[in-house]
Design goal:
Elements (H helix, E strand, L loop, with lengths): L7 H12 L6 H15 L17 E13 L4 E13 L3 E2 L1
Antiparallel strand pairs: 1-2, 2-3
Amino acid sequence: MEARNKNVATIAAARIWMVMPSGRTLSQLVNESVASAYKQAGYEVVTEPGAADATSMKVHIVEFWSWFTPGFFSVDVSSKSLLRIETPGGGKC
């Protein structure tokens, strides 16, 4: 037996917007997270196109899920994402 809520997509979308800071997009947040990960790995991240000795990359959001887990005294917010990172000549990471 399977039961489904007809408004699942609406509820899921509402949850994402409640988690997102006002005026921010998922793409902006993922961009910042990927840049931060590269910096933590020791890379210098630049935003100017054509910077010397820099390799450009494209980050595709393949899948993104976000959900709340209510507790007695707190609410946990969790997310799961699948990203595809492409570099010219380097293929996919």
